[in-house]
Amino acid sequence: MSFLSQGFSSEIVQALTECGYEKLTPVQQQAIPHARRGHDILAHAQTGTGKTAAFSLPIIQQIVDAPKARARGAVRALILAPTRELVAQIANNIENYTQYVDLTVAAVFGGAKMSSQERKLEAGVDILVATPGRLIEHLELGNVKLANLEFLVFDEADRMLDMGFINAIRTIMSSIHSQPQTMLFSATSSPQMNALAQDLLRKPKRIIVNAENSTADTVAHVVYPVDEDRKLELLSELIGRKNWQQVLVFVNYKETANEVVKELKLDGIKAVLCHGDKAQSSRRRALEEFKTGKARVMVATEVAARGLDIQGLPHVVNYDMPFLAEDYVHRIGRTGRAGQQGHAVSFVSREEELTLVQIENLIQHRIKRIQLAGYEPANRDALLQKMHTKPAYRDRQGRTNNANDQGSAERRLRLMKAIKNKSSKTTRLKG
Questions:
Q1: I want to staple 295 with a disulfide (CB 3.0 to 4.6 A). Which of 108, 220, 289, 330 is the partner?
Q2: What distance lies between CA 83 and its chain's CA centroid?
Q3: What pLDDT, on a 0 to 100 scale, did the predictor assign at position 21?
């Protein structure tokens, strides 16, 4: 099915062709016809399935079909996303889609100068892409007006809930006096997600491309059981032995990220950092080095789990298992995109076995275990038997609260102690 068959103008189709778009993806096939008819949409689809085009192209065409004079600070379409990386990516895609039509796009997010964003907003914009926090700042300063908004999109809505943006969303909604066509896109489902959809959407068309909370078929998953204090060694071992050239490594703490990058560099493996303490310019530079192959490894906290579009990324490593089982889906969604094959590798310490069980229950798939000789964890069999036989362990529920607190103080202390006390390496690989 072609984009021309969906009634898009020749200018938009030309831009899509130059972007390399040929046929509609499954989420686009289902969402675009409903969106073109003005329906609200609730869509569950994995990352890398073409969601941005699915929600933005119908909006672009409707704005082109009904041009209006731009007013100071006015916005016709608003797209909210949880991270600055995702906002920048969406805005860049839309700019590519609209290169041959008269339509303005702006992106606002934290870590960038307010003054430059104010200048973009002053004349009014057709499509605004924003993080909730920075948008509220502009609303409070009177730089942007949403009263007559026509289109509203929540991308990665589940992640916005995980990051505690629900109050920010309510504040933004209170500034909207119209009834915009609203589309809500999410990779995972939860009771909180369903409650938000019920509040925001009017008779939505529900779209499910993959089974809810599932992972892409193009990703092969494996787990390496390993003691916490041997993870650094195992990471270097795998990168060197398997000659991995592009690896995105997820950790739970900024301190861990710093330590992992330091150790990898000592092993002769060029690595870069991406976490919240880094300035936006530094994170952008790190991503560029990683994308172009100047760095083999990028070590990131959850801030990079959404919005990173790295073409052909072959390997994702969960150095730490995520605090929320749903975040596993998003992390590994960085690989196996656009029909390409990808590999997801997870390191699971004795303390993280319960998290692994929760993830497998969520995705309804048992992940293959690989035991690497020399890295066998201590007392793992006894723990597994306890977990699967004692009701208190077997029936324990996973976390469902805000992921920003990133676990208990005890877990954090235990992790940092393990890092500081890790055994010295006897061999430095030069992979």
A1: 289
A2: 8
A3: 87
Residue tagged 């032995």 (tokens): 241
Evaluate whether residue 430 is within a structural domain.
no
The pair phi, psi for residue 363, each rounded to 5°, is -85, -5
> Is 170 in the same domain as 315?
no
d(CA 189, CA 380): 32
Cα(337)–Cα(219) distance, rounded to whole angstroms? 9
Question: Is 334:310 a contact under the CB 8 Å cutoff?
Answer: yes
Domain range spanning residue 196? 4-208
Give the per-residue pLDDT at 3.
86
Q: Are residues 319 and 299 in the same domain?
A: yes
* Residue 414 and residue 351 in contact, taking contact as beta carbons nearer than 8 Å: yes
Give the integer Cα–Cα distance in Å for 332 and 326.
11
Q: Give Rg (Cα) of the chain.
A: 22
Q: Are residues 108 and 190 in the same domain?
A: yes
pLDDT beneath 70, residues of the chain? 1, 46-48, 210-218, 303-309, 336-340, 379-431
Cβ neighbours around 142 below 10 Å, total = 10
Q: How many structural domains does the chain have?
A: 2
DSSP letter at 5 equals: G
pTM of the model: 0.61
70 domain residue, yes or no: yes
Give the whole-angstrom CA distance, residue 204 versus residue 363: 25
SS3 4: helix
Dump strand ranges (E) for 277-422: 297-300, 315-318, 342-348, 368-369
